[in-house]
Amino acid sequence: MEWRDTGIVLGSRRFGETGLILDAFTREHGRQSGFIHGGNSTKKRASFEVGTTLELEWRARNENQLGNFNLSEATANRAAMFMSSRLSLTALNSVTSLLNTSLPDGQAYPMLYDATEFVLDQLGDRELWPALMVSWEVGFLRTVGYGLDFSKCAVSGRKNGLTHVSPRTGRAACGEEVPEYVDKLLQLPEFLVNSEADASAEDIGKGFRLTGHFITNRLYAEAHKPPPGSRELMLRRLSDMEIVVF
Amino acid sequence: MSKNLIGPELQRVIDLIGKLPGLGPRSARRVALHLLKRPDTLLAPLADALAEAGKAITKCSVCGTFDTVDPCTVCSAPNRDLSVICVVQDVPDLWALERAAAFKGRYHILGGVLSALDGVGPENLNIDSLIARASSPDVKEVIIALSATVDGQTTAHYLSDRLESLGIQITRLAQGVPMGGELDHLDEGTLTAALMSRRGLE
User: Fold this and answer.
1) B118 CB within 8 Å of a chain A CB
2) pTM for this entry
3) Is the domain of A46 the same as that of A32?
4) Is residue B1 predicted with pLDDT exceeding 60?
5) A164 lies in a domain?
6) What integer pLDDT is reported at residue A239 of this predicted model?
7) How many degrees, rounded to 5, is the angle at CA A203 between CA A200 and CA A208?
8) Are residues A192 and A206 in the same domain?
């Protein structure tokens, strides 16, 4: 088996003296791991930092083998760009560790891949990326099977006035339709249903609380593991810098 | 090679040598044979040196490096600058900085870096002892000399957060073009870091 694809580095670990096992999220082949001969050498190692986009060539006898990445050329060195920014670096870690710990091997998600490339490219702009990150997390949850449905109210079928989300089903609801349950529902910020709406610090906080509920209590709880600490660190930094209000 | 061909003592030596970094079973056999051929000049002195080191070498209770005295030679040296602590990941990093002979302060060995993939959290590193040392009124600056990797710099930012409240100067090593480095041969990541860390000509 052999293919060429573009992929984002999700993680790497040393193997032997100079080898490296690379985990990458590729556009057409999903999450893939492969061995890189000499990948841990000082000359090559910088290309395999998380968040880097690479042109990859993967080769194996069959699709279930670990395989080798034979060629890799970096097209975006995000780690080097964001290394000096504590906020951007935690966001980069959060995205890559969420993908690395929850995506199944070999399952392609081209739309999630494109969205990930886009959000990673915006990490230098702190005015922009926190709201984008909430939207990315919603898309990520939808992609991995936790279908958050904000298209209409689960109670009345109305398509406007959506203010809350059921923590159980992930479906949106109009708070005024179910006043007795509002305290038990998660708040839905307007920018997630209306792309033209502004995202205030409070709205972004509501968004992260909403996605955080499904990431922690569904995605990772069902896998019997805690969510990556890097997401928590990112939220703490955003809160400390008053970019997000929880 | 069949294990029956050699005695259990030699096999044990080969097995132990084979556990050293960079050595597999075949290399371990070659090393063992090399030692056996030089019993007086290499085997016996090496065995004595290892036994002596095993007894005498201890971990410094202040910085965490290995030495025969506690506190170590660096921590107890009267001519070292008390006001600066350089945080390094592990003992080889301390040795590298000492080889450069450009730093005259004291060190603190962290024992690793934060890594979500390897499950290394703040509780697994010597961070509390660093905070305690940096809280001393003598300390004016902490230099974070961790590797230029995502994990290394994530740890650096985490330490910076923890040390911020102490009101001391927190610095980190520069990143960019190495001495004697030609731009054409540098990887894109190093070049990007070098451009972003550019400074005025003095």
Assistant:
1) yes
2) 0.84
3) yes
4) no
5) no
6) 95
7) 130
8) yes
